[in-house]
Amino acid sequence: MKEEKVSTYRKILSSTAIFGGAQVLTIIINIIRGKLVASILHSTGIGISSILSNAAGSIQQFALMGLNISAVKDISQASTEDERVLTFTIRLVRRLVLLASVLGLIITILLSPLLSKISFKDISYQSYFLLLSLSIFFNVMGTGEMAVLQGLRRYKLLAFCSLVPPACGLLLSIPIYYIWGIDGIVPAMIVANAIYFIVIRLVSYRNNQPKEKKEKITLKVAWQKGHHIIQFGIVMTIGVFLGTFTTYALTAFISNTGSVDDVGFYQAGNTITMQYIGLIFTAMATDYYPHLSSLIKNNLTDAFHFVNQQTEIIVLIMTPLAMLIILTAPLVIRVLLTEEFMIIEQMVCFMGMASIFKALCFPMDYIAYAKGDKHYIFWVETIWGCCKTFTIMALCYYFFGLQGLGYGALITAAVDFLVCLVLIPWRYGFRLSSNSIRPIIIMTTMAIVCFAGSFIEQTIWKYAVMVTSTAICIVYSIRQLDRRIDVRLFLSNIKKRFTLRKQSEK
Q1: Counting Cβ atoms within 10 Å, is residue 53 exposed (0-12), middle (13-18) or buried (19+)?
Q2: 224-255: burial string, b at 16+ Cβ within 10 Å, e else
Q3: pLDDT, tens only, 271-302
C-alpha cells in the first residue's frame, strides 16, 4: 500500500512536470513570436492580428460548446470499460468535433461581412474573415483531438502536441509575415493551425487506431449517444462566457468609477500572480481531471483518496511559490514592469496570498466536473461564483480604491474555500484526510506569517520575517514531498531505466 501511495504521488508530480514544462516552452515560443511580429508588422499589424485572433477565439468557443472539456470525462470513464466502448466513445467525440468544426467554418463565412464591419468599421476586411474560417476549422479539429489524448491520459503525447505545432508554426509564419506583411496574418494563422491539427491527428490516430470494424455513426446516432456530452459542454460554455463577461464588467466598473490607469494596474497585478500560477493549475488538471473522472465512476473511495493526495501535492508546491511572490514582489514588478507600477506591490502580496486559497479549492472543485454535476457547476460555480466575485471586488474597489482590489481578491478566494469546505462534503460526502489537513494548517500558517511580515515598516525586520518564514516553508515542503515520493528511490529508478536503455541500444 505504501509503494502504491508513493507511485500515485510520483505520477501526479511527473505529469505536472511534463506538461508544465511544455507550457513554459510554449509561452517562450509565443513571446519570441510576439517580438518578431512586432518588428515586422509594427503596431498596425499587431492590432489587426489581435482583433482577428479574438474573433476566431470567440467563434471557436461557441462552435465547440465545451466539447473539449466534457468529452474528457466520457473518454476517461470509457477507458475503464472494454475496448469496444472506448473505441465507440472516441469515434463519437470525433464526429461531434467534426460537426463543431464545420459549424465554426460556416458561421465565419456567413458572418464575414458583419464581422468585418464590427471589427474594422467597413467590409474591406471581409476576405480576411473568409480565409479565417479555414483557420477556425483546423483549430477546432485539433482542440477536439487534444481532448481525446487528455481523456486517455497520454500526457507525454499531450506535451509533445502542445509544443511541436507552435514551434513549427513559428518557423513557417515568420517568412509569411516577412513576404506578405499584413496580408500574411491570416495565411500564417491557417498554416499554424493546420500544422497543429495535422500533428495532433497523426499522433492521436497512430496511438488510438480502432482494431475492430467501425460502427457507422450517423447524425441521429451522434445526437442520441452524444447529447449528454453536448449538454454538459453547453453548461461549461455558459460558465466561460459569464466568467469573461464578469471580468469585462469589473474592468468597466473600475474604469468608470476610478480611471483607466487603475484598470492597467489591476491587469498588471493579476498577470504577475494569477496568470503564471495558473500555469501550474492547468498542468496539474491535464492528468488530474481524466484520472479523477475514471476513478469516480468505479470507486468513490479511491477517487476521494486521490483528491486528498492531489490536495497534499498542490499545497506543498503552491504555498512556497506564493510566498516567493510575496517576498519578491518589489523585484518582480521592477523587472517585469517599470517603477510606475510599484504602487501595486501591496496588491500583488494580497493576490499571492489569495492564490493559496485558490489552490486549496482546485482539487475539490473538480469533483463536480468529474461527476458531470451540471446543476452544481451552473448554480454554484457559474452564477454564484460570478455574482460573488463582481460584488466583492466592486465594493472593495469602491471603498478602498486600487488596494481594495487586492483585498477583494483575497476575500473572494477565502470565501470560495469556505464554500468548498461546506458544499462539497454536503453534496458528495468528501472529507479532507488528516494527511491533507496537517500540511494545509502548517503551510497556510507560514504563508500568513510571511504575508503579515510584508506590512512591517522597518526593512530589516520586514525581510527577516519574510525570508525566514519562506525558507522554513521551502524546507518543510521539500521534506514532505520527499516522504511522499521517496526522491532517492525515484532517482535510482530513473538511473536504472537509463542504464537498461543504453545497454539495449548497444
Answers
A1: middle
A2: ebbeebbebbbbbbbbeebeeebbebbbebbe
A3: 788 766 777 777 777 788 888 988 887 788 99
In order of 81, 170, 189, 368, 442, the CA distances from 158 in angstroms are: 22, 19, 21, 24, 35
Give burial (CB, 10 Å; 0-12/13-18/19+) of 320: buried
Length of the chain in terms of residues written = 506
As a whole number of angstroms, the distance between CA 235 and CA 253 comes to 26
Closest to 108 in 3D by CA, of 158, 61, 157, 45? 61
Going residue by residue through the chain (506 aa), what tens digit of pLDDT does each one get?
455 555 667 677 666 666 666 777 777 776 677 667 777 877 678 778 878 887 888 888 888 888 888 888 888 888 877 788 888 888 888 889 999 999 999 999 999 999 888 878 788 889 999 999 999 999 999 999 998 988 888 877 887 887 777 788 778 888 898 888 889 989 998 998 999 899 888 888 776 655 555 666 776 777 777 777 888 888 888 888 788 788 878 888 988 898 888 888 888 888 788 766 777 777 777 788 888 988 887 788 999 999 999 999 999 999 999 999 999 999 988 887 788 889 999 999 999 999 999 999 999 999 999 998 999 999 999 999 999 999 999 999 999 999 999 999 999 999 999 999 999 999 999 999 998 999 999 999 999 999 999 999 999 999 999 999 999 999 999 899 888 876 666 666 655 655 655 555 45
Extract the C-alpha cell encoding 388: 460573488
CB-CB contact of 129 with 115 (8 Å): yes
Secondary structure in 3-state letters for 259-280: CHHHHHHHHHHHHHHHHHHHHH
* Total-model pTM: 0.82
Rounded to 5°, the CA angle 19-196-171 comes to 95
| 401 φ/ψ sector (left φ>0, alpha ψ -120 to 50, else beta) | left
Residues 148/154, Cβ–Cβ less than 8 Å: no
- Tell me the three cell numbers of residue 32: 519570441
Neighbours of 350 (CB within 10 A): 24
Cα torsion 25, 31, 34, 35 to 10°: value is -120
Would you tell me the crossing angle of helices 126-151 and 155-180 to the nearest 10 degrees?
160
How far CA 16 is from CA of 24, 156, 279, 466, in Å, comes to 12, 11, 10, 28
Residue with cell 474592468: 251
State the amino acid at position 220 in one-letter form: K
C-alpha span between 222 and 227 (Å, rounded): 8
Terminal CA-CA length for the chain: 37
Spatial contact of 129 and 112, defined as CB atoms under 8 Å apart: yes
Among the residues of 209-299, which ranges form H helices? 219-257, 260-270, 276-298
